[in-house]
Specification:
alpha/beta; Isopropylmalate Dehydrogenase; 12 strands; IsoPropMal-DH-like_dom; NAD
């Protein structure tokens, strides 16, 4: 999965690692231990862990969602990190902002990489990666509320797209597409894709300046780089959603601005059965944070039924971006075997297994 550029960045990574663990809120506290257990079970890595605070619960206790200590430890001591989940209130809470959004900005983790892949024999064939720009778009959170001349309330939000951010997300998406093709060829892996494909998602037919800049920059990066082996496509975001559900096999790597990438990747989880299966990694030039795509799920918190697979796969994805593909592949293989056998599935997958039972089964397969 990791791009060649990032692989070079991480090439000096020691086989002795220090990983930050940030459980966050809700079921994050129940699934992050699964990532830790899997890393410990690999056996060929020496891993030290440091537990760090962040989240809405921490904010309610201390007034801070992302402590400076957490940020400093990640910057100065850790090789990578796992982040569980965050509870984001749906109404404004004075002084609070999402710690994972802040981490992405402060550590310059500009790419959110979200693979969505079905296990052979368990449903329709799906094998795509959504590469979401992580630092701008509407997620810059520059909003204002004011009274119009007629006395009614108006809320506005700024959507910011830059050439710099668009270019680097296009580059990493193209490199991921090339790398996926190389892995398929080297492993003789059966695949629904005969060649690497990049699909640029946008809404430039309406947002001609902001999304237009994203689209034009991605196209320029493709045309001016060494990507002739990659098929290049563009897709308006609303028709992208339609096609993704109708013919997911048409997509290999999809690159999108922040908001569209967020929506598309959550929607794509339905193609494989559950958000509890879908991993992600927040990636920059030299650091990666594995993060399951699901939320804090307060309705099932404390019941020991949260699906740990998204976190376990996120752990493997983090290792890929740390240039440890063999260890990542072992984790993926154990997870796929669990899903293919389908005897121990959590309730979100139609089963009755507990979090603990699924974790123990995957550890056994490792």
């Amino acid at each position: 999965m990791q791009s060649s550029r990032l692989a070079r960045t991480f090439a000096t990574a020691s086989r002795s690692l220090k990983i930050g663990l940030i459980p966050g809120d809700g079921i994050g506290r129940e699934v992050i231990p699964a990532g830790k257990q899997v890393l410990e079970a690999l056996g060929d890595l020496k891993v030290d862990f440091v537990e760090l605070d962040a989240g809405f619960e921490h904010f309610k206790k201390t007034g801070t969602a992302l402590p400076e200590k957490t940020l400093e430890v990640l910057k100065n001591e850790c090789d990578g990190a796992l982040f569980g989940a965050v509870s984001s209130p749906t109404t404004k809470v004075e002084g609070y902002s999402s710690p994972i959004v802040a981490l992405r900005k402060k550590l310059d983790l500009y790419a959110n990489v979200r693979p969505v892949k079905s296990v052979e024999g368990t449903g329709r064939p799906v094998d795509l990666v959504i590469v979401r720009e992580n630092t701008e778009d509407l997620y810059i959170k520059e909003e204002r509320t004011y009274k119009a001349a007629d006395g009614t309330t108006v809320a506005e939000a700024i959507k910011r797209i830059t050439e710099t951010a668009s270019a680097r997300i296009a580059k990493i998406a193209l490199e991921i597409a090339q790398n996926r093709a190389s892995v398929r060829k080297a492993s003789s892996e059966k695949s629904i894709h005969s060649k690497p494909i990049l699909t640029v998602t946008h809404k430039s037919n309406v947002l001609s300046q902001s999304d237009g800049l994203f689209r034009e920059t991605c196209r320029a990066v493709y045309q001016n780089g060494n990507y002739s082996d990659v098929e290049y496509n563009e897709q308006i975001v609303d028709s992208m959603v339609y096609r993704m559900f109708r013919e997911p096999e048409a997509f290999d790597v999809v690159v999108a601005p922040n908001l569209y990438g967020d929506i598309l990747s959550d929607g794509a989880a339905a193609l494989v059965g559950s958000l509890g299966l879908v991993p992600s990694a927040n990636v920059g030039d030299g650091f990666a944070i594995g993060e399951p795509c699901h939320g804090s799920a307060p309705d099932i918190q404390g019941k020991n039924i949260a699906n740990p697979i998204a976190t376990i796969r996120s752990t493997a994805l983090m290792l890929e971006f740390m240039n440890l593909p063999e260890q990542a592949a072992r984790i993926y293989k154990a997870v796929d075997a669990n899903l293919k056998e389908a005897k121990l599935l959590t309730p979100d997958m139609g089963g009755s297994a507990t979090t603990t039972e699924v974790v123990q089964d995957i550890l056994r397969r490792l």
